[in-house]
Write a structure and sequence with these properties.
13 helices; Aminotrans_3_PPA_site; seven-stranded mixed sheet; biotin biosynthesis; pyridoxal phosphate; four-stranded mixed sheet; single chain; alpha/beta; PyrdxlP-dep_Trfase_small; 36% helix
Length: 437
Protein backbone atom coordinates (compact mmCIF):
# COMPACT_ATOMS: atom_id res chain seq x y z
CA UNK A 1 0.00 0.00 0.00
CA UNK A 2 1.34 3.43 -0.96
CA UNK A 3 2.08 5.55 2.07
CA UNK A 4 0.95 9.20 1.67
CA UNK A 5 0.58 11.71 4.48
CA UNK A 6 -0.31 15.42 4.19
CA UNK A 7 0.71 15.63 0.54
CA UNK A 8 4.05 13.95 1.18
CA UNK A 9 5.31 10.46 0.59
CA UNK A 10 7.86 8.80 2.82
CA UNK A 11 11.42 8.80 1.43
CA UNK A 12 11.46 5.00 1.59
CA UNK A 13 8.26 4.65 -0.44
CA UNK A 14 9.42 7.32 -2.91
CA UNK A 15 12.68 5.49 -3.47
CA UNK A 16 10.91 2.16 -3.92
CA UNK A 17 8.43 3.49 -6.47
CA UNK A 18 11.04 5.37 -8.48
CA UNK A 19 13.31 2.33 -8.55
CA UNK A 20 10.49 0.17 -9.87
CA UNK A 21 9.48 2.88 -12.35
CA UNK A 22 13.02 3.10 -13.70
CA UNK A 23 13.30 -0.63 -14.27
CA UNK A 24 9.81 -1.49 -15.49
CA UNK A 25 7.78 1.51 -16.67
CA UNK A 26 8.54 2.83 -20.14
CA UNK A 27 8.16 6.60 -20.52
CA UNK A 28 7.76 8.61 -23.75
CA UNK A 29 10.87 8.74 -25.92
CA UNK A 30 13.01 7.17 -23.22
CA UNK A 31 15.29 4.13 -23.01
CA UNK A 32 14.62 1.11 -20.84
CA UNK A 33 15.75 1.18 -18.14
CA UNK A 34 15.45 4.95 -17.88
CA UNK A 35 18.61 7.01 -18.21
CA UNK A 36 17.56 9.23 -15.32
CA UNK A 37 14.65 9.09 -12.84
CA UNK A 38 11.30 10.71 -13.45
CA UNK A 39 9.82 13.12 -10.90
CA UNK A 40 7.15 11.55 -8.72
CA UNK A 41 3.91 13.59 -8.71
CA UNK A 42 1.41 12.74 -5.96
CA UNK A 43 -1.26 15.38 -6.65
CA UNK A 44 -2.04 18.43 -8.75
CA UNK A 45 -4.28 21.43 -8.24
CA UNK A 46 -4.63 24.72 -10.04
CA UNK A 47 -1.43 25.15 -12.04
CA UNK A 48 0.79 23.34 -9.52
CA UNK A 49 2.12 19.82 -9.33
CA UNK A 50 2.93 18.43 -5.86
CA UNK A 51 5.91 16.10 -5.72
CA UNK A 52 6.46 13.24 -3.29
CA UNK A 53 8.56 15.40 -0.96
CA UNK A 54 5.77 17.98 -0.71
CA UNK A 55 7.42 20.57 -2.97
CA UNK A 56 5.34 22.26 -5.65
CA UNK A 57 6.09 23.14 -9.26
CA UNK A 58 4.20 25.49 -11.58
CA UNK A 59 3.39 23.35 -14.61
CA UNK A 60 4.72 25.26 -17.59
CA UNK A 61 3.64 22.47 -19.95
CA UNK A 62 -0.08 22.14 -19.09
CA UNK A 63 0.46 18.37 -19.29
CA UNK A 64 1.69 18.54 -22.87
CA UNK A 65 -0.61 21.43 -23.74
CA UNK A 66 -3.88 19.83 -22.63
CA UNK A 67 -4.64 21.08 -19.08
CA UNK A 68 -5.68 24.58 -20.15
CA UNK A 69 -7.91 24.99 -17.07
CA UNK A 70 -5.31 23.64 -14.68
CA UNK A 71 -5.83 20.64 -12.41
CA UNK A 72 -8.56 19.43 -10.09
CA UNK A 73 -11.09 21.92 -11.44
CA UNK A 74 -14.40 21.55 -9.60
CA UNK A 75 -16.56 21.88 -12.74
CA UNK A 76 -14.57 19.28 -14.64
CA UNK A 77 -14.47 16.99 -11.61
CA UNK A 78 -18.26 17.29 -11.37
CA UNK A 79 -18.72 16.45 -15.05
CA UNK A 80 -16.79 13.20 -14.66
CA UNK A 81 -18.41 12.14 -11.40
CA UNK A 82 -21.93 12.95 -12.62
CA UNK A 83 -21.38 10.93 -15.78
CA UNK A 84 -19.82 8.11 -13.76
CA UNK A 85 -23.08 7.81 -11.85
CA UNK A 86 -24.90 7.19 -15.15
CA UNK A 87 -22.49 5.01 -17.14
CA UNK A 88 -18.74 4.94 -17.65
CA UNK A 89 -18.81 3.40 -21.11
CA UNK A 90 -21.02 1.82 -23.73
CA UNK A 91 -20.03 0.56 -27.17
CA UNK A 92 -20.66 3.06 -29.97
CA UNK A 93 -21.44 0.47 -32.64
CA UNK A 94 -25.20 0.51 -33.06
CA UNK A 95 -25.63 2.56 -29.88
CA UNK A 96 -25.32 6.24 -29.06
CA UNK A 97 -25.74 8.40 -25.97
CA UNK A 98 -26.67 12.01 -25.10
CA UNK A 99 -23.15 12.90 -23.96
CA UNK A 100 -21.58 12.10 -27.32
CA UNK A 101 -24.38 13.86 -29.20
CA UNK A 102 -23.99 16.94 -27.03
CA UNK A 103 -20.24 17.07 -27.58
CA UNK A 104 -20.67 16.64 -31.34
CA UNK A 105 -23.12 19.54 -31.34
CA UNK A 106 -20.61 21.75 -29.50
CA UNK A 107 -17.80 20.84 -31.92
CA UNK A 108 -19.90 21.46 -35.03
CA UNK A 109 -21.02 24.84 -33.66
CA UNK A 110 -17.48 25.84 -32.69
CA UNK A 111 -15.45 24.76 -35.73
CA UNK A 112 -15.52 26.35 -39.21
CA UNK A 113 -18.96 26.13 -40.83
CA UNK A 114 -18.29 23.48 -43.50
CA UNK A 115 -17.35 20.89 -40.86
CA UNK A 116 -20.57 19.07 -40.00
CA UNK A 117 -19.58 15.44 -39.39
CA UNK A 118 -17.79 14.28 -36.23
CA UNK A 119 -15.80 11.07 -35.76
CA UNK A 120 -14.65 10.50 -32.18
CA UNK A 121 -11.18 9.02 -31.68
CA UNK A 122 -9.14 7.73 -28.76
CA UNK A 123 -6.26 10.21 -29.04
CA UNK A 124 -4.73 12.87 -31.23
CA UNK A 125 -2.63 10.32 -33.09
CA UNK A 126 -5.71 8.26 -33.89
CA UNK A 127 -7.59 11.37 -35.00
CA UNK A 128 -4.87 12.03 -37.58
CA UNK A 129 -4.95 8.37 -38.66
CA UNK A 130 -8.68 8.74 -39.22
CA UNK A 131 -8.18 11.96 -41.18
CA UNK A 132 -5.65 10.28 -43.48
CA UNK A 133 -7.93 7.28 -43.89
CA UNK A 134 -10.84 9.62 -44.72
CA UNK A 135 -8.83 11.30 -47.47
CA UNK A 136 -7.60 8.04 -49.01
CA UNK A 137 -10.97 6.33 -48.79
CA UNK A 138 -12.70 9.39 -50.25
CA UNK A 139 -10.68 9.16 -53.45
CA UNK A 140 -10.96 5.38 -53.63
CA UNK A 141 -14.72 5.84 -53.42
CA UNK A 142 -14.50 8.20 -56.42
CA UNK A 143 -12.65 5.55 -58.42
CA UNK A 144 -9.40 7.47 -58.06
CA UNK A 145 -7.29 5.03 -56.04
CA UNK A 146 -4.18 6.50 -57.70
CA UNK A 147 -4.65 9.53 -55.46
CA UNK A 148 -2.92 7.87 -52.54
CA UNK A 149 -0.21 10.28 -51.40
CA UNK A 150 -0.25 13.36 -49.17
CA UNK A 151 1.51 16.68 -49.58
CA UNK A 152 2.93 18.19 -46.41
CA UNK A 153 5.85 20.32 -45.23
CA UNK A 154 9.03 19.41 -43.43
CA UNK A 155 9.25 20.33 -39.77
CA UNK A 156 5.83 18.89 -39.02
CA UNK A 157 4.68 16.45 -36.37
CA UNK A 158 1.35 14.62 -36.43
CA UNK A 159 1.65 11.72 -34.00
CA UNK A 160 3.37 8.44 -33.33
CA UNK A 161 1.26 5.84 -35.15
CA UNK A 162 2.34 4.64 -38.58
CA UNK A 163 0.08 6.76 -40.76
CA UNK A 164 1.04 9.81 -38.73
CA UNK A 165 4.75 9.03 -38.76
CA UNK A 166 4.70 8.99 -42.55
CA UNK A 167 3.70 12.69 -42.66
CA UNK A 168 6.10 13.83 -39.93
CA UNK A 169 9.46 15.30 -40.92
CA UNK A 170 11.23 12.34 -42.60
CA UNK A 171 14.78 13.54 -41.89
CA UNK A 172 14.90 15.58 -38.71
CA UNK A 173 11.73 14.25 -37.10
CA UNK A 174 11.38 11.67 -34.36
CA UNK A 175 10.43 8.87 -36.75
CA UNK A 176 13.23 8.83 -39.34
CA UNK A 177 14.29 5.36 -38.18
CA UNK A 178 11.14 3.96 -39.79
CA UNK A 179 11.47 5.77 -43.12
CA UNK A 180 12.08 2.58 -45.10
CA UNK A 181 8.82 0.91 -43.99
CA UNK A 182 6.42 3.87 -44.22
CA UNK A 183 4.40 5.18 -47.17
CA UNK A 184 6.32 7.75 -49.16
CA UNK A 185 4.56 11.10 -49.26
CA UNK A 186 5.47 14.42 -50.88
CA UNK A 187 7.34 16.94 -48.72
CA UNK A 188 7.81 20.65 -49.33
CA UNK A 189 10.47 22.57 -47.40
CA UNK A 190 9.33 23.95 -44.05
CA UNK A 191 7.51 27.30 -44.23
CA UNK A 192 9.87 30.22 -43.60
CA UNK A 193 9.95 31.23 -39.94
CA UNK A 194 8.03 34.22 -38.66
CA UNK A 195 4.34 34.76 -38.01
CA UNK A 196 4.56 38.41 -39.10
CA UNK A 197 7.17 37.86 -41.82
CA UNK A 198 6.30 38.88 -45.36
CA UNK A 199 5.48 35.89 -47.55
CA UNK A 200 8.40 34.60 -49.60
CA UNK A 201 7.27 34.40 -53.24
CA UNK A 202 10.09 32.00 -54.09
CA UNK A 203 8.80 29.59 -51.45
CA UNK A 204 5.23 29.99 -52.69
CA UNK A 205 6.37 29.21 -56.24
CA UNK A 206 8.07 26.07 -54.93
CA UNK A 207 4.84 24.98 -53.25
CA UNK A 208 2.89 25.57 -56.44
CA UNK A 209 5.36 23.64 -58.57
CA UNK A 210 5.41 20.69 -56.16
CA UNK A 211 1.63 20.48 -55.98
CA UNK A 212 1.30 20.70 -59.77
CA UNK A 213 3.93 18.02 -60.35
CA UNK A 214 2.16 15.51 -58.10
CA UNK A 215 -1.46 16.62 -58.42
CA UNK A 216 -2.71 13.39 -60.03
CA UNK A 217 -1.38 11.22 -57.20
CA UNK A 218 -2.23 13.50 -54.27
CA UNK A 219 -5.26 12.87 -52.08
CA UNK A 220 -4.79 15.74 -49.66
CA UNK A 221 -2.56 18.36 -48.12
CA UNK A 222 -1.95 17.96 -44.38
CA UNK A 223 -0.31 20.55 -42.11
CA UNK A 224 -0.41 22.02 -38.62
CA UNK A 225 -1.88 25.52 -39.05
CA UNK A 226 0.43 28.44 -38.16
CA UNK A 227 2.39 26.55 -35.48
CA UNK A 228 4.45 23.44 -36.10
CA UNK A 229 4.49 21.84 -32.66
CA UNK A 230 6.66 18.92 -31.60
CA UNK A 231 8.52 19.05 -34.90
CA UNK A 232 10.28 22.25 -33.83
CA UNK A 233 7.86 24.81 -32.35
CA UNK A 234 8.04 26.89 -35.52
CA UNK A 235 5.60 29.73 -36.29
CA UNK A 236 4.82 30.69 -39.87
CA UNK A 237 2.87 33.43 -41.63
CA UNK A 238 -0.86 32.94 -42.34
CA UNK A 239 -0.24 33.62 -46.04
CA UNK A 240 1.36 30.18 -46.40
CA UNK A 241 -1.71 28.47 -45.00
CA UNK A 242 -3.89 30.46 -47.38
CA UNK A 243 -1.64 29.37 -50.24
CA UNK A 244 -2.10 25.72 -49.30
CA UNK A 245 -5.88 26.17 -49.26
CA UNK A 246 -5.68 27.74 -52.71
CA UNK A 247 -3.53 24.88 -54.01
CA UNK A 248 -5.96 22.32 -52.64
CA UNK A 249 -8.81 24.09 -54.43
CA UNK A 250 -6.84 24.45 -57.67
CA UNK A 251 -6.01 20.76 -57.88
CA UNK A 252 -9.16 19.35 -56.31
CA UNK A 253 -7.35 18.11 -53.19
CA UNK A 254 -8.64 17.86 -49.65
CA UNK A 255 -7.07 20.08 -46.99
CA UNK A 256 -6.47 18.39 -43.62
CA UNK A 257 -5.61 20.68 -40.71
CA UNK A 258 -4.14 19.13 -37.58
CA UNK A 259 -5.44 21.46 -34.85
CA UNK A 260 -4.66 19.07 -31.99
CA UNK A 261 -2.00 21.36 -30.49
CA UNK A 262 -3.22 24.67 -31.92
CA UNK A 263 -6.95 24.39 -31.22
CA UNK A 264 -9.04 25.82 -28.40
CA UNK A 265 -7.25 29.16 -28.22
CA UNK A 266 -3.60 28.22 -27.78
CA UNK A 267 -2.33 30.52 -30.57
CA UNK A 268 -4.50 33.50 -29.64
CA UNK A 269 -7.30 32.52 -32.03
CA UNK A 270 -9.78 29.75 -31.30
CA UNK A 271 -8.34 27.70 -34.17
CA UNK A 272 -5.00 28.05 -35.90
CA UNK A 273 -6.78 28.30 -39.25
CA UNK A 274 -8.61 31.42 -38.03
CA UNK A 275 -5.34 33.36 -38.43
CA UNK A 276 -5.57 32.83 -42.19
CA UNK A 277 -9.39 32.80 -42.41
CA UNK A 278 -9.31 29.45 -44.19
CA UNK A 279 -11.51 26.41 -43.65
CA UNK A 280 -10.33 22.81 -44.02
CA UNK A 281 -12.12 19.81 -45.49
CA UNK A 282 -10.98 17.70 -42.54
CA UNK A 283 -9.90 18.92 -39.10
CA UNK A 284 -8.37 17.06 -36.16
CA UNK A 285 -8.91 18.33 -32.61
CA UNK A 286 -7.76 16.96 -29.26
CA UNK A 287 -5.45 17.78 -26.32
CA UNK A 288 -7.22 20.77 -24.69
CA UNK A 289 -10.62 19.39 -25.73
CA UNK A 290 -10.94 17.42 -22.50
CA UNK A 291 -8.99 19.89 -20.37
CA UNK A 292 -6.31 17.26 -19.76
CA UNK A 293 -8.70 14.92 -17.93
CA UNK A 294 -9.24 12.05 -20.37
CA UNK A 295 -7.75 10.84 -23.62
CA UNK A 296 -10.07 11.81 -26.47
CA UNK A 297 -9.92 13.53 -29.83
CA UNK A 298 -12.14 14.05 -32.84
CA UNK A 299 -11.88 14.24 -36.61
CA UNK A 300 -14.40 16.51 -38.31
CA UNK A 301 -15.14 16.65 -42.02
CA UNK A 302 -17.46 18.26 -44.53
CA UNK A 303 -20.62 16.81 -46.03
CA UNK A 304 -18.73 16.33 -49.29
CA UNK A 305 -16.11 14.11 -47.66
CA UNK A 306 -18.60 12.09 -45.64
CA UNK A 307 -20.96 11.54 -48.56
CA UNK A 308 -18.10 10.68 -50.90
CA UNK A 309 -16.84 7.97 -48.52
CA UNK A 310 -20.32 6.61 -47.85
CA UNK A 311 -21.14 6.23 -51.56
CA UNK A 312 -18.02 4.14 -52.17
CA UNK A 313 -17.43 0.40 -52.41
CA UNK A 314 -17.20 -0.07 -48.63
CA UNK A 315 -20.15 2.20 -47.91
CA UNK A 316 -18.71 3.00 -44.48
CA UNK A 317 -15.63 4.65 -43.00
CA UNK A 318 -13.37 1.73 -42.14
CA UNK A 319 -12.54 2.64 -38.57
CA UNK A 320 -14.11 2.02 -35.15
CA UNK A 321 -12.25 2.21 -31.83
CA UNK A 322 -13.49 0.16 -28.86
CA UNK A 323 -13.67 3.24 -26.63
CA UNK A 324 -15.06 5.51 -29.33
CA UNK A 325 -17.11 8.39 -27.83
CA UNK A 326 -16.42 7.21 -24.29
CA UNK A 327 -19.09 8.90 -22.12
CA UNK A 328 -16.69 9.96 -19.36
CA UNK A 329 -14.37 11.63 -21.86
CA UNK A 330 -17.26 13.18 -23.79
CA UNK A 331 -18.75 14.58 -20.59
CA UNK A 332 -15.55 16.25 -19.45
CA UNK A 333 -14.84 17.49 -23.00
CA UNK A 334 -18.23 19.23 -23.11
CA UNK A 335 -17.58 20.72 -19.68
CA UNK A 336 -14.12 21.86 -20.72
CA UNK A 337 -15.45 23.58 -23.82
CA UNK A 338 -18.22 25.24 -21.82
CA UNK A 339 -15.69 26.38 -19.22
CA UNK A 340 -13.42 27.83 -21.91
CA UNK A 341 -16.26 29.76 -23.53
CA UNK A 342 -17.57 31.01 -20.18
CA UNK A 343 -14.35 32.91 -19.52
CA UNK A 344 -12.55 35.57 -21.50
CA UNK A 345 -10.03 33.02 -22.77
CA UNK A 346 -8.75 35.45 -25.38
CA UNK A 347 -7.78 37.98 -22.71
CA UNK A 348 -6.12 35.19 -20.70
CA UNK A 349 -4.05 34.11 -23.69
CA UNK A 350 -3.21 37.71 -24.64
CA UNK A 351 -1.98 38.35 -21.09
CA UNK A 352 0.18 35.23 -21.15
CA UNK A 353 1.57 36.29 -24.53
CA UNK A 354 2.52 39.72 -23.18
CA UNK A 355 4.25 38.29 -20.09
CA UNK A 356 6.06 35.63 -22.12
CA UNK A 357 7.27 38.26 -24.57
CA UNK A 358 8.53 40.57 -21.83
CA UNK A 359 10.16 37.78 -19.85
CA UNK A 360 11.85 35.88 -22.67
CA UNK A 361 12.93 38.59 -25.09
CA UNK A 362 16.11 39.32 -23.16
CA UNK A 363 17.27 35.74 -23.71
CA UNK A 364 17.77 36.58 -27.37
CA UNK A 365 21.09 38.24 -26.48
CA UNK A 366 22.47 35.25 -24.59
CA UNK A 367 25.38 33.50 -26.34
CA UNK A 368 23.79 30.05 -26.34
CA UNK A 369 20.47 31.24 -27.77
CA UNK A 370 19.64 31.18 -31.49
CA UNK A 371 16.08 32.54 -31.37
CA UNK A 372 13.21 33.56 -29.12
CA UNK A 373 9.62 33.44 -30.33
CA UNK A 374 6.20 33.88 -28.74
CA UNK A 375 2.70 33.44 -30.13
CA UNK A 376 -0.40 33.28 -27.98
CA UNK A 377 0.24 31.09 -24.95
CA UNK A 378 3.39 29.59 -26.48
CA UNK A 379 6.90 30.74 -25.58
CA UNK A 380 10.03 29.27 -27.13
CA UNK A 381 13.75 29.73 -26.57
CA UNK A 382 15.76 27.94 -29.24
CA UNK A 383 19.33 27.08 -28.31
CA UNK A 384 22.23 26.88 -30.74
CA UNK A 385 22.96 23.31 -29.69
CA UNK A 386 20.82 20.46 -28.29
CA UNK A 387 20.08 21.12 -24.64
CA UNK A 388 20.96 18.89 -21.69
CA UNK A 389 17.42 17.98 -20.66
CA UNK A 390 18.10 16.87 -17.05
CA UNK A 391 20.30 19.91 -16.43
CA UNK A 392 17.71 22.32 -17.80
CA UNK A 393 14.93 20.67 -15.86
CA UNK A 394 16.92 20.91 -12.63
CA UNK A 395 17.44 24.64 -13.13
CA UNK A 396 13.74 25.13 -13.82
CA UNK A 397 12.76 23.03 -10.81
CA UNK A 398 15.10 25.08 -8.62
CA UNK A 399 12.94 28.03 -9.72
CA UNK A 400 9.77 26.13 -8.85
CA UNK A 401 8.76 25.38 -12.44
CA UNK A 402 8.25 22.27 -14.55
CA UNK A 403 9.23 22.35 -18.24
CA UNK A 404 10.09 19.56 -20.66
CA UNK A 405 12.71 20.65 -23.24
CA UNK A 406 13.44 18.68 -26.38
CA UNK A 407 16.12 19.00 -29.03
CA UNK A 408 17.33 22.59 -29.05
CA UNK A 409 14.13 23.94 -27.53
CA UNK A 410 13.22 25.18 -24.06
CA UNK A 411 9.58 26.14 -24.30
CA UNK A 412 6.37 26.62 -22.38
CA UNK A 413 2.65 26.20 -23.08
CA UNK A 414 1.16 27.05 -19.68
CA UNK A 415 -2.45 26.64 -18.51
CA UNK A 416 -4.58 29.63 -19.45
CA UNK A 417 -5.50 30.23 -15.81
CA UNK A 418 -1.91 31.11 -14.87
CA UNK A 419 -1.62 34.52 -13.24
CA UNK A 420 0.86 37.07 -14.52
CA UNK A 421 3.06 36.28 -11.53
CA UNK A 422 3.00 32.55 -12.31
CA UNK A 423 3.86 33.14 -15.95
CA UNK A 424 6.66 35.41 -14.73
CA UNK A 425 8.02 32.53 -12.65
CA UNK A 426 7.99 30.37 -15.78
CA UNK A 427 9.89 32.95 -17.83
CA UNK A 428 12.42 33.45 -15.01
CA UNK A 429 13.06 29.70 -14.97
CA UNK A 430 13.46 29.48 -18.74
CA UNK A 431 15.73 32.55 -18.80
CA UNK A 432 17.92 30.99 -16.08
CA UNK A 433 18.13 27.79 -18.07
CA UNK A 434 19.02 29.74 -21.21
CA UNK A 435 21.80 31.53 -19.30
CA UNK A 436 23.34 28.14 -18.55
CA UNK A 437 23.60 27.08 -22.20
Amino acid sequence: MIELRLGRMSPHETERLLAYDREHVWHPYAPMPAAYPAELVVSASGVRLTLADGSELIDGMASWWSAVHGYNHPKLNAAVTTQLGKMSHVMFGGLTHPTAIGLAERLVDLTPAPLTKVFFADSGSVAVEVAIKMALQYWRSQGRSGRHRLLTVRGGYHGDTFGDMAVCDPVNGMHHLFADVMPQHVFAPPPPLGYVAEADETYLDELRALAAAHADELAAIIVEPIVQGAGGMRFYAPEYLQALRDLADEHGLLLILDEIATGFGRTGELWGCDHAEVTPDIMCVGKAMTGGYMTMAATLCTDRVAEGISRGEAGVLMHGPTYMANPLAAAVASASIDLLLSRDWRDEVDTIEAVLTAGLEGARDLPGVADVRVLGAIGVVEAREPVDVPAVQKIAMDHGVWVRPFGKLIYTMPPYICTEDEVGHITDAIYAAAESL
